[in-house]
């Protein structure tokens, strides 16, 4: 809170107007529309709409396809988060050890952030291309047939890797910052107390890193749930056989491709609920920034 | 140049807490007034009310003949020096000095002239093109004063301007401020919690406690005739001894008093002295020593020559006419 | 390091070299592929070393594009991307900094309401309100326009919170000094606040430029005319529109071009980039 403020009632509203108007038109209104549409059903020609109560929701939870999308999302989200964070932490620990070459490695590790998830999808598509891709080729030499176009598991592995790759640099930077803020004196004290490097890591560094880890966990879950849309759309399109059809992608498919507005709206509302929960968790437990 | 008048000024915060109550001060043109008191006594709030940075909820403040209660700070014709200087970090010293003039539409030539004058007075000419972060604490302090001077305002307001400096520099700057104010003859209000700074700078002191004025007077008046036990204990170092009258019942003329005040330097050791003190600790200051102990149940201090003999129990006498008597309930001075 | 164990250092180097190799692999392959001719991909496995068709591929993509797919030249799509990225970055910063200024430096009715409305944008990512947002933009006649690409994406709680945080850390005395020096709110904003927020603005600009450039879903939805395609959304169309197998050399050349601008920003403004990343998401 500021001690000094300007005494003006009109100016602040003017200053806020652009942000508030845009938010109202492009955020709040569509969100309200989604809620409204989620209780309506449109006939096949879009001529009549009728109020159907929670029918759209109950239909969703009876649909095996939607429930499948839930479990696909769960597997995908958790895998992306775990792969990203383990890889990033490993890199951060290694870089943190090497004071002299820290800068070089950091630069070499952060640039994937600049690559759009959609482009990342295309790049990995090329690498995993069943006929000419380098990885299926290498795997064939050891007798594994990797083909994500037909095999659901392979498809999942493929999109997880592509999605995690985009996110490594972000987690890496935060882990590195977290590691570097562990006071050297603590490690020295532990060393004097007889703890070797491995023991020190698990008993001193990792516990002190837990706020960073928790923050990254939440942020990466949000990323994997929502921002990976581009990866899926640029690669598997949710296939094969719905095996990579995560919730955000299904909303889009049902709404735009399938033109099933009521169902898509109901899915939107459910997703909003998930984002709200995740956001509340993030702000409740991770940051005190909105404490007003 | 202008007089400043505070008429029954008070401030109550929206929550209902009272910050300032019923303050009356008449400040003459060219006078140097120091508001002094412990932290939280409302002295800064009062200054900021004069500046226009805090609203006035009761009474009236006049600068010259003009009531300024609802006048914006920029239109009050005052300049302020802040505790942390509040220099604009992205502007050079020259730009810092010129900013207020520019906003008021002063002509370029005039700005240049005034900045040069102020720089001359404060000897900051060589730093004019530096950024504040490239200056030492004392230099920043001068720039902050320069920013006030260039404006040639009706009054200077100082909000603890020396408290961020080290002790030695504080003494030098104190003298410089005093000299500068004399030379310019600008009405000044100066806030400090340091009673020594207050004594040395002020034409008149305003001692504040809990949002109320305890006493207004010249430093010597306040020192010699403190209006209350609060002022007695606050002004002067080492502080005046305040002893319950019941501890020294045999002192003449003290029957109706609740508290008796005696300055440490007004006490002397004397075998048949009427006051008994138990000694607890001694501080050697070189030229003299401070002897701390108790008179009755109250802590007391005596200044003594460093070669005087010491014992655990001292009999003390006092310089005639040096007793200060205070009312048992109100704590006000009784004459 | 607490103790000096060369073995651990060597291990760290090994892990990092391997890590960097994994991270770099996709881009390496893309770069290599973009220098070959189309028929180099017909059989077997993708080449691992550069070919001699770089000039052909890149000049063709930048100049004419793949004519059969009806795609505009990549240079044109990059221009669209640039407009979108700059528009989003500048727009976000402009409306966020004024919002934060209003919230921090004024007291007015509905201030808390405004704060929570802005906060709500965090909870409504475009992915979850795709259909109705598309309808709004369509009704406003903003499909296939630059404003349609930019404006719906510039509301930003993150940037507003960042500036709010920065403003809250500014000493109050600075504002008071400015008021005594005769600066009104907007003068204070321009003369004092903006210059003091310069590095924060620059850091945020870097992040938001990358964010804007890399937008995918939104341009995919609202650009139906090929002259409005952005490069990131365009690649995907290029790979699906082509009748036969995607022409990998051209697609990879486009991919390289699509990632180049943000990549240069990250590498050459690394300090600002890291600052922006840590500040906006902390």
From TrEMBL, chain A:
Q: What InterPro entries does this protein's entry cite? A: MetI-like (IPR000515), MetI-like_sf (IPR035906), UgpAE/MalFG_permease (IPR050809)
Q: Which UniProt keywords apply?
A: Cell inner membrane, Cell membrane, Membrane, Transmembrane, Transmembrane helix, Transport
Q: Which domain of life is it from?
A: Bacteria
The UniProt family comment states: Belongs to the binding-protein-dependent transport system permease family.
* Compartment list: Cell inner membrane; Cell membrane
Q: Name one Pfam family in it.
A: BPD_transp_1
What task does this protein carry out? Part of the ABC transporter complex UgpBAEC involved in sn-glycerol-3-phosphate (G3P) import. Probably responsible for the translocation of the substrate across the membrane.
**ABC transmembrane type-1 domain: which residues?**
70-282
Which GO terms are recorded in the biological process aspect for this UniProt protein?
transmembrane transport
How is this protein positioned relative to the membrane? Multi-pass membrane protein
Q: What is this protein called?
A: sn-glycerol-3-phosphate transport system permease protein UgpA
Record CDD domains = TM_PBP2
Gene Ontology CC terms: plasma membrane
Q: How does it assemble?
A: The complex is composed of two ATP-binding proteins (UgpC), two transmembrane proteins (UgpA and UgpE) and a solute-binding protein (UgpB).
Query: Any transmembrane segments, and where?
Result: 70-95, 107-127, 155-179, 200-226, 265-286
From TrEMBL, chain B:
Q: Does the keyword Methyltransferase apply?
A: no
Return the InterPro entries for the record.
Answer: AAA+_ATPase, ABC_transporter-like_ATP-bd, ABC_transporter-like_CS, ABC_transpr_MalK-like, ABC_transpr_MalK/UgpC-like, Mo/tungstate-bd_C_term_dom, NA-bd_OB-fold, P-loop_NTPase
- Which PROSITE patterns does the UniProt record give? ABC_TRANSPORTER_1, ABC_TRANSPORTER_2
Spell out the Gene3D superfamilies in the cross-references.
Answer: 2.40.50.100, Nucleic acid-binding proteins, P-loop containing nucleotide triphosphate hydrolases
Give any Gene Ontology cellular component: ATP-binding cassette (ABC) transporter complex, substrate-binding subunit-containing
Organism superkingdom: Bacteria
The family database entries (SUPFAM superfamilies) matched by this protein are listed as:
MOP-like, P-loop containing nucleoside triphosphate hydrolases
What CDD domains does the annotation carry? ABC_MalK_N
Q: Name a GO molecular-function annotation.
A: ATP binding
Keyword Translocase, does the record have it? yes
Q: Which residues form the ABC transporter domain?
A: 4-235
Enumerate the UniProt keywords alphabetically: ATP-binding, Cell inner membrane, Cell membrane, Membrane, Nucleotide-binding, Sugar transport, Translocase, Transport
- Tell me which Gene Ontology terms the entry assigns under biological process: carbohydrate transport; glycerol-3-phosphate transmembrane transport; glycerophosphodiester transmembrane transport
What is stated as this protein's family in its record?
Belongs to the ABC transporter superfamily.
Q: Which NCBIfam families match?
A: PRK11650.1
- Report what the protein is called: Sn-glycerol-3-phosphate import ATP-binding protein UgpC
UniProtKB/TrEMBL annotation, chain C:
Give the domain of life. Answer: Bacteria
Q: Name one GO cellular component term.
A: plasma membrane
Name a single GO biological process: transmembrane transport
| Pfam families hit by this protein | BPD_transp_1
Q: How does it sit in the membrane?
A: Multi-pass membrane protein
Assigned keywords, A-Z: Cell inner membrane, Cell membrane, Membrane, Transmembrane, Transmembrane helix, Transport
User: Where exactly are the transmembrane stretches of this chain?
Assistant: 7-31, 82-106, 113-134, 146-167, 188-210, 216-235, 247-269
Taking every annotated instance into account, which residue ranges of this chain make up the domain ABC transmembrane type-1?
78-269
**Entries under InterPro entries matching the protein:** MetI-like, MetI-like_sf
**What this chain does, per the record?**
Part of the ABC transporter complex UgpBAEC involved in sn-glycerol-3-phosphate (G3P) import. Probably responsible for the translocation of the substrate across the membrane.
Subunit structure comment from the entry: The complex is composed of two ATP-binding proteins (UgpC), two transmembrane proteins (UgpA and UgpE) and a solute-binding protein (UgpB).
Q: Which NCBIfam families match?
A: PRK10973.1 (NF008210)
State the family named in the UniProt similarity comment for this chain. Answer: Belongs to the binding-protein-dependent transport system permease family.
Protein name (database record): sn-glycerol-3-phosphate transport system permease protein UgpE
Ranked from the top, the taxonomy reads: Bacteria, Pseudomonadati, Pseudomonadota, Alphaproteobacteria, Rhodobacterales
């Amino acid at each position: 809170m500021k001690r000094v403020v300007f005494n003006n009632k009109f100016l602040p509203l003017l200053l806020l107007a652009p942000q508030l108007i845009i938010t109202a038109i492009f955020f709040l209104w569509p969100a309200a529309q989604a809620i409204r549409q989620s209780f309506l059903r449109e006939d096949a020609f879009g001529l009549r709409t009728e109020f159907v109560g929670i029918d759209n929701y109950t239909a969703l939870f009876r649909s095996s396809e939607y429930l499948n999308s839930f479990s696909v999302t769960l597997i995908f989200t958790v895998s992306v988060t775990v792969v990203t964070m383990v890889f990033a932490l490993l890199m951060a620990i290694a870089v943190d050890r090497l004071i002299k070459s820290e800068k070089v490695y950091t630069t070499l590790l952060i640039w994937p952030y600049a690559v759009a998830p959609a482009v990342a999808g295309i790049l990995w598509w090329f690498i995993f291309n069943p006929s000419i891709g380098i990885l299926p080729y290498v795997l064939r030499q050891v007798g594994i047939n990797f083909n994500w176009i037909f095999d659901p598991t392979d498809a999942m592995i493929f999109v997880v890797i592509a999605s995690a790759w985009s996110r490594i640099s972000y987690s890496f930077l935060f882990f590195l910052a977290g590691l570097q803020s562990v006071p050297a004196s603590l490690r020295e004290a532990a060393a004097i107390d007889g703890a070797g490097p491995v023991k020190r890591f698990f008993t001193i560094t990792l516990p002190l890193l837990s706020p960073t880890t928790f923050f990254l966990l939440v942020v990466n879950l949000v990323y994997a749930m929502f921002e990976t849309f581009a990866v899926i759309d640029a690669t598997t399109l949710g296939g094969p056989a719905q095996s990579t059809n995560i919730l955000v992608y299904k909303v889009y498919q049902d709404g735009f491709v399938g033109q099933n507005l009521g169902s898509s709206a109901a899915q939107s509302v459910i997703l909003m609920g998930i984002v709200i929960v995740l956001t509340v968790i993030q702000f409740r437990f991770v940051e005190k920034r909105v404490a007003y | 140049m202008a007089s400043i008048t505070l008429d029954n000024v008070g401030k109550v915060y929206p929550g209902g807490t009272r910050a300032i109550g019923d303050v009356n001060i008449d400040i003459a043109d060219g006078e140097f007034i120091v508001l002094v008191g412990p932290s939280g006594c409302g002295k800064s709030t009062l200054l900021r009310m004069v500046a226009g940075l805090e609203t006035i909820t009761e009474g009236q403040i006049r600068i010259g003949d003009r009531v300024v209660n609802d006048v914006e700070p920029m239109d009050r014709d005052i300049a302020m020096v802040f505790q942390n200087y509040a220099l604009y970090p992205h502007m050079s010293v020259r730009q810092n000095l010129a900013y207020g003039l520019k906003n008021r539409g002063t002509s370029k030539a005039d700005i240049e002239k005034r900045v040069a004058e102020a720089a001359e007075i404060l000897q900051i000419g060589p730093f004019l093109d530096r950024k504040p972060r490239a200056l030492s604490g004392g230099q920043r302090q001068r720039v902050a004063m320069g920013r006030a001077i260039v404006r040639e305002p009706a009054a200077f307001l100082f909000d603890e301007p020396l408290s961020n400096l080290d002790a030695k520099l504080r003494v030098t700057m104190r003298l410089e401020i005093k000299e500068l104010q004399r030379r310019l003859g600008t009405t000044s209000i100066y806030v400090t919690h340091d009673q020594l700074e207050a004594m040395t700078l002020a034409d008149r002191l305003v001692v504040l406690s809990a949002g109320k004025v305890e006493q207004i007077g010249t430093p010597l008046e306040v020192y010699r005739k403190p209006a209350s036990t609060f002022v007695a204990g606050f002004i002067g170092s080492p502080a005046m001894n305040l002893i319950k009258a019941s501890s020294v019942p045999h002192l003449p003329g003290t029957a109706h008093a609740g508290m008796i005040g005696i300055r440490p330097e007004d006490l002397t050791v004397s075998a048949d002295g009427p006051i008994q003190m138990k000694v607890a600790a001694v501080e050697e200051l070189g030229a003299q020593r401070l002897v701390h102990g108790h008179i009755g149940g109250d802590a007391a201090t005596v200044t003594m020559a460093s070669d005087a003999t010491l014992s655990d129990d001292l009999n003390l006498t006092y310089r005639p006419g040096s007793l200060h008597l205070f009312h048992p309930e109100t704590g006000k001075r009784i004459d | 390091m607490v103790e000096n164990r060369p073995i651990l250092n060597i291990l760290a180097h090994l892990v990092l070299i391997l890590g960097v190799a994994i991270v770099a692999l996709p881009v390496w392959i893309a770069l290599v592929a973009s220098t070959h001719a189309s028929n180099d991909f017909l059989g077997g496995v993708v080449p691992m070393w550069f070919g001699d068709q770089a000039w052909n591929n890149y000049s063709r993509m930048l100049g004419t594009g793949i004519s059969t797919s009806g795609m505009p030249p990549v240079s044109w799509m990059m221009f669209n991307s640039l407009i979108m990225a700059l528009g989003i970055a500048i727009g976000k910063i402009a409306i966020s900094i004024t919002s934060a200024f209003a919230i921090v430096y004024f007291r007015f009715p509905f201030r808390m309401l405004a704060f929570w409305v802005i906060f709500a944008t965090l909870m409504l990512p475009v992915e979850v309100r795709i259909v109705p947002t598309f309808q709004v933009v369509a009704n406003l006649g903003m499909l296939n326009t630059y404003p349609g690409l930019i404006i719906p994406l510039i509301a930003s709680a993150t940037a507003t919170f960042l500036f709010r945080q920065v403003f809250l850390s500014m000493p109050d005395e600075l504002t008071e000094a400015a008021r005594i020096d005769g600066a009104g709110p907007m003068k204070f904003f321009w003369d004092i606040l903006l210059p003091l927020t310069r590095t924060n603005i620059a850091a945020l600009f870097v992040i938001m430029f990358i964010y804007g450039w890399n937008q995918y879903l939104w341009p995919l939805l609202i650009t139906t005319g090929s002259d409005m395609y952005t490069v990131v959304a365009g690649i995907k169309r290029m790979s699906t529109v082509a009748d036969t197998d995607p022409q990998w050399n051209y697609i990879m050349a486009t991919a390289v071009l699509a990632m180049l601008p943000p990549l240069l920003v990250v590498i050459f403004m690394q300090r600002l980039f890291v600052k922006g990343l840590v500040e906006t998401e902390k």
